[in-house]
Design a protein that fits this description.
With about 600 residues, this protein is α/β, with parallel strands linked by helices. It is built from 22 helices and 14 strands. Among the domains are: about 110 residues, Gyrase A, domain 2 (2-Layer Sandwich), CATH 3.30.1360; about 160 residues, Isoleucyl-tRNA Synthetase, Domain 1, CATH 1.10.730.10. Helix 9 packs across helix 10 and helix 18 runs antiparallel to helix 22. Arginine (ARG) binds next to loops.
Length: about 600
């Protein structure tokens, strides 16, 4: 009798669930994958297709009225007419505990999930993982270097640097969410003849006091003045060259003043980056490249890749359609590309990275192609582990005061403009404790989201008006959606109950849509790095859709005023939505606002 009972128990269990493992799916960290895998298992038997191929053909339907998971029959590459096959699948499909409804729609089959069952696994997962929710361990024990921002000391921090900062930080975050060990690196432009010129300028126009006050602006002023002098008087150039030569030769006095400039600038940069919610693991720079460069030159020589031309050393890359690269000037000094070659070699030696990403404007496409080619010609097999993630230009980023932009001025102006927008809603404004801080944070969100709203390679124009709007796909809209969810939690004065009975969410379409949207988050996190696309717009688009579904649900499903069990279930749903939205926003480098 006991044996029979055990057998019956086992039969019952296996009729309920048997979650198969499928390569590339992750039911452990992604509850929606459990549904997909169960679905793929049945479907793969129905039409005799490999389960992995079936899993890969399951996608998110374009619109939520088309259900929660769609099978694109065409992707199965079966013989026969996909529309007929879809109809056939629907006829044979056995509904179960996971799938409530299957509908044919041309060459697609749309599946509607048991959203209550999904919510039970899902919200629990969110509750257990909180700020790590959505992440995975794919990159475990793999080290990657992400180099971004990389402004030039004494020169303006221009729109290209701002984009590199925003995109780079996103790349850092999304890799970290996928479990990679990321080293974020700022490779400052801090070496070259210009810094000889700057030192000469400082002797004439510099002030230690002003330098301490605002190194970035003061060095820029000095640089502008000495450039003017140099234009009128060629001798200034000679002085600068001589000074830089001293620096390259390691002259202590020359290096001391230069490193003073560098150190103070870094202090200031750190401050500005902190305001943007960004920190670097390493402040490197062109000046930090040491013997890697000389070793590279020696290797190039041994491999017969160097040619002398007019006293300078060049590499001819014309047979790769990459032109000619000067790697050493007549006077023996190095160049931007030379330092990049040395830097890459030294970074590989230091970090043994599995991959390195350069987040640099597309204006430098050629430069990076040359760099990667030279490293390949040097015989480094890790040259194929280097990727240039490029991006288009931003237009119209100038302040009201003028066309020279300092990041700080842009941030000031953004904050003030956002503050003006906020003041228009007097009632809300009165409730905010520290409006300037809030304006700063939301203003920065506006900039970041505007930047992340199109594919990287697209050019765009800074649109001071649009980006501050609380409507449309903007940073303020996301912040508002997040703050609204926080306010629901505050007002109910209930603790989130992880054991809430979720059957009380009922049969509403708004709930089913919101739950499925929350459930898609881990997949979005994985997909954003697969294929090396790294498009922040994926996450922006997701966060927007999630916010829309939240406001749709809020139209009919209140927490306040609902009966206790119902309120608890709904609160757990909105809380899970808030955690998910917050995590997505943090990937985009935003600081989610709790009140505004
Ligand atoms: N400092 C450079 C510039 O402002 C960007 C550096 C990009 N990174 C590199 N490894 N070359 O143009």
């Amino acid at each position: 009798a006991e044996v029979a009972a055990a057998a019956a128990e086992k039969a019952k269990l296996s009729s309920v669930v048997e979650i198969p493992t499928i390569e590339g799916s992750d039911p452990e960290s992604d509850p929606l994958d459990a549904f997909k895998n169960v679905l793929a298992a049945q479907l793969s038997k129905l039409v005799d297709v490999n389960i992995k191929i079936m899993y890969d053909a399951l996608e998110a339907p374009r619109a939520s009225e088309n259900g929660h998971i769609a099978l694109s029959v065409a992707r199965l590459r079966l013989k026969g007419n996909p529309t007929e096959i879809a109809a056939d699948i629907v006829e044979k499909f056995q509904l179960n505990d996971y799938i409530k409804l299957a509908k044919a729609d041309g060459p697609f089959v749309n599946f509607f999930l048991n959203h209550i069952k999904l919510s039970q696994a899902l919200f629990k997962k969110v509750y257990d993982t909180k700020e790590n929710w959505g992440g995975n361990k794919r990159g475990e024990n793999r080290k990657v270097v992400v180099e971004f921002s990389s402004p030039n000391i004494a020169k303006p921090f221009h729109a290209g640097h701002l984009r590199s900062t925003i995109i780079g930080s996103f790349v850092r975050n999304i890799l970290a969410a996928n479990g990679y060990g990321v080293i974020s690196m700022n490779y400052l432009g801090d070496w070259g003849k210009q810094y000889g010129l700057l030192a000469v300028g400082f002797e004439r126009y510099g002030s230690e006091e002003k330098l301490l006050e605002d190194p970035i602006k003061h060095l820029f002023d000095v640089y502008v003045k000495i450039n003017q002098d140099a234009k009128e008087n060629e001798a200034v150039h000679d002085e600068a060259r001589a000074y830089f030569k001293k620096m390259e030769d390691g002259d202590e006095a020359a290096l001391k003043i230069w490193s003073h400039f560098r150190d103070l600038s870094i202090v200031k940069y750190r401050e500005i980056y902190a305001r943007l919610n960004i920190a670097f693991d390493v402040y490197s720079g062109e000046s930090q490249v040491t013997d890697g460069m000389n070793r590279a030159l020696k290797m190039l020589h041994e491999k017969n890749l160097l040619t002398e031309s007019d006293g300078a050393l060049i590499i001819d890359l014309s047979k790769y359609k990459l032109g000619i690269c000067v790697v050493q000037k007549k006077d023996g000094t190095t160049l931007y590309i030379t330092r990049d070659i040395g830097a890459a070699i030294e970074r590989y030696e230091t970090y043994g990275f599995e991959h390195m990403y350069y987040i640099v404007a597309s204006q430098q496409d050629l430069h990076l192609k040359q760099l990667f080619k030279i490293l390949e010609l040097l015989g480094f097999d890790w040259a194929k582990k280097l990727t240039h993630l490029n991006f288009g230009m931003v237009g119209g980023m100038s302040t009201r005061k003028g066309t020279v932009v300092f990041l700080e001025d842009i941030l000031e102006e953004t904050r003030d403009a956002m503050h003006e927008v906020m003041k228009k809603n007097e009632h809300k404004y009165a409730q905010i404790d520290d409006p300037m801080d809030v304006a700063d944070n939301i203003g920065i969100s506006a900039i970041m989201v505007q930047d992340a709203s199109a594919r990287r390679i697209k050019n765009y124009d800074f649109d001071w008006k649009r980006m501050f709007s609380f409507e449309g796909d903007t940073g303020p809209y996301l912040q508002y959606a997040h703050a609204r969810l926080c306010s629901i939690e505050r007002k109910t004065e209930m603790e989130v109950n992880p054991n809430a009975d979720l059957t009380h969410l009922g049969d509403s379409r708004a709930a089913a849509d919101l739950i499925t949207m929350i459930a898609r988050y881990p997949q979005i996190v994985r997909d954003t790095i697969s294929g090396g696309k790294f498009e922040p717009v994926n996450i922006v688009g997701y966060a927007m859709k999630l916010s829309h579904h939240v406001s749709q649900a809020l139209e009919s499903m209140y927490v306040m005023g609902a009966e206790k069990d119902v309120a608890e279930a709904r609160l757990f749903m909105y809380w899970s939505a808030r955690i998910t939205l917050g995590n997505a926003m943090r990937l985009l480098n935003l600081k989610p606002q709790e009140r505004m």
